[in-house]
Amino acid sequence: MQSFAVQTQDLRKVYGSKVAVRNLSLAVRRGEIFGFLGPNGAGKSTSIKMLLGLVKPSGGRAHVLGAPPNDVSVRRKIGFLPEDFRFYEWLTATELLELHGRLCGMEKAILRKRASVLLETVGLAPHRGKRLREFSKGMLQRIGLAQALIHEPELIFLDEPTSGLDPMGRRLVRDVIRAQRERGATVFLNSHLLSEVEITCDQVAFIKDGEVVATRNLRTQSDGEVRVSVRARKLSGEAVAGLARWCTSTHLDGEQLLVMPRSVSDFPDILRHLIASGADVYEFTPERLSLEDLFMRIMPEDRGL
Amino acid sequence: MGLWIMACVTFREAARKKILWIGFLAGIAFLTLFGTGMYFQVKDFNTRTIPPFIRYQAVGGILQVGFYAVDSLAVLMTVLTSVDTISGEINSGTIHAIATKPVHRWQVLIGKWVGFVGMAVGYITVMFGGVFVLGYWIAGVVPQNPIRGALLIFLECILVLSVSLASGTWFSTLTNGVIVLGLHGLAFLGGWIEQIGGFTHSPRLVTVGIVSSLILPSESLWRRAVFEMQSSVTRSLPFGPFSNASVPSTAMIVYAGVYTLVALVIAIYHFDQRDL
Fold first, then answer.
1. Strand, helix or coil at A62?
2. Is A103 helix (H, G, I), strand (E, B) or coil?
3. Tell me: the pLDDT tens digits for A201-253?
4. Residue B75 has pLDDT above 50, yes or no
5. Are A117 and A184 within one domain?
6. Among residues A5, A2, A4, A8, which one has the least CA distance to residue A62?
7. Cβ within 8 Å of residue A78, ≥6 positions away
8. Same domain, A205 and A234
9. Into how many domains does chain B fold?
10. Which residues does chain B have within 8 Å of residue A90's beta carbon, measured at their own beta carbons?
11. Would you call B101 and A75 a contact, using CB atoms and an 8 Å cutoff?
12. How far apart are CA A246 and CA A271, in angstroms?
């Protein structure tokens, strides 16, 4: 259990006759940026709430940093940015961070320093004395991100962190996530923005109807999910036809050849075959299927996220 | 520690939202009005030939009106400030950022409770003390057992506060407000039914009144408070707005105390068990 930041087994939540989460089994390694994907209403937020002890599971088991989610002491090591962050609007940005830091048991001097650094990080330093009621949605999201990081947690849950943020804000979230990975923290990211997830995450799980339907490692190239783009001259019809041995599909357009190899380990054979056939190869570029393509392949009937 | 932080936040929230200050301003306005009224009443009495004993009792009656206003304002203030604290934060999602911190949920709830108790202590001290001082200063009249009276009003506030928090763990702010004020209204009516029953020597009516008081014993606490503060002569008056044709027993006070405790335990338990 200890090598995993989050581990669940058959986690389940039922509201009356509605099954919100059905047998959720997950394993998130420590130090990993984990993306939790799925269409609206798939049970993502309920799952996160169960992992944080906000919602009691109807069945199954969950461990967060080696402890059950309702263990209060382990929360000292956990940060959470709720979806659509809202807080006491009569607090100033600095007061909000100090309150959250104090709730996490931080010392006053350390807290003050850390709050100041975080306000700089999230770009709210000029607004440190402003009350939350004067904040825009994007500013609230930024201060919400800061409160999730105030106590330098080992595990951070971010529920739709980029919602309401402009492109600059999104970039900031990406940078913050990367910085967290560099200091060894685990990030559990719930987002419907696939491009964001693709850039930041190491591992993703696709959830549908409250169940994990697929998991993917985004840092390795998996069989059947990488195509190769080849630019070559003197490509003969026989040479292209001969690729059927290793590829499920080929498409030739002038000098541009797109092939879909069955296995990543076949790449050298494909390249050798092309050269042996007399073709002059200028480019041989493996391209991973985009997360969107993967998503559509896994959940073809869910058109909207 | 988490409990104390939440208590301070609750107190600061009231101050920042200006509820506390508006409440105090309204209280000062009331005290000014009360003082002025009493001053002219005393002046008016001085122009007539009224025996000092009767005059003392009449001014004592005005003092009771003052304490009654303090009681009503304190209860209303307690309900209005606390009715939104749990349900509102659940509804807005604010509670998510708090309940995921290393604090127990009971600490959050008791912290809020302590914050509101602090507010009630401050409010009752200023308002009750204000009426007491004005009564003594302007008319030279003091109530019997003022400490007991103030403590009973305080217990009444703690009672409605605990019910408001317990109900807030189930219902939305508006529903919660309707429930708590509705129960208090029922208790008020029950109190009058019991009074009328006592005056007309109708035991069945008294029973109906007592049963209503059992649903929420807030009005019983006020009636016991006013009984404690009355002189023996006023107590003997057969019927009036503050007469005690049927005085709530000590058992009812104990019941109110137990009721408060049970409401608080239910609030803690349900807040701890429910999904947020």
1. strand
2. helix
3. 999 998 888 888 888 888 776 767 788 999 999 888 888 999 999 998 889 88
4. yes
5. yes
6. A8
7. A52, A64, A65, A153, A154, A155, A156, A157, B100
8. no
9. 1
10. 13, 16-17
11. yes
12. 11
Q: Are residues A184 and A201 in the same domain?
A: yes
Torsion of CA A203, A27, A189, A123, to 10 degrees: -100
DSSP B180-221: HHHHHHHHHHHHHHHHHHHHTT-HHHHHHHHHHHHH-THHHH
- Number of domains chain A is built from: 2
Residue of B96, B98, B112, B273 to mutate for A, most A C-beta atoms under 10 A: B96
B179 vs chain A: nearest CA distance in angstroms? 25
0.80 exceeded by pTM: yes
Contact in structure between B11 and B115 (CB atoms under 8 Å): yes
- Strand A256-261 versus strand A226-233 pairing type: antiparallel
Residue B101: which of A90, A91, A100 has the nearest Cβ?
A100
Distances (CA, A) of B210 to A168, B205, B207: 66, 9, 5
Element (H, E) at A285: strand A280-288
Domain range for residue A193? Answer: 4-217
CATH number at residue A266: 3.30.70
pLDDT digits (tens, 9 = 90+) for A60-78: 999 999 999 989 999 999 9
Q: What are phi and psi of B245, to 5 degrees?
A: -65, -30
Q: Are residues A208 and A270 in the same domain?
A: no
> Hey, are the CB atoms on B17 and A90 less than 8 Å from each other?
yes
- Cβ–Cβ gap A54/B103 under 8 Å: no
Instruction: Say which residue, B233 or B58, is predicted with more confidence.
Output: B58
Query: Do A236 and A136 fall into the same domain?
Result: no
DSSP B91: H
What ipTM, to 2 d.p.?
0.82
* Interface check B17 vs A, CB under 8 A: yes
| A30 half-sphere exposure, CB direction, 13 A CA radius | 15
In whole angstroms, give the CA distance from residue B56 to residue B62: 10
In this complex, is the C-beta atom of B8 within 8 Å of any C-beta atom belonging to chain A?
A: no
- Chain A interface includes B18 (CB < 8 A): no
Going by C-alpha positions, the residue among B126, B33, B38 that lies closest to residue B74 is: B126
Mean pLDDT of A41-50: 90
Q: Report d(CA A259, CA A131) in Å as an integer.
A: 57
Q: Taking all residues of chain A, what is their mean pLDDT, rounded to a whole number?
A: 89
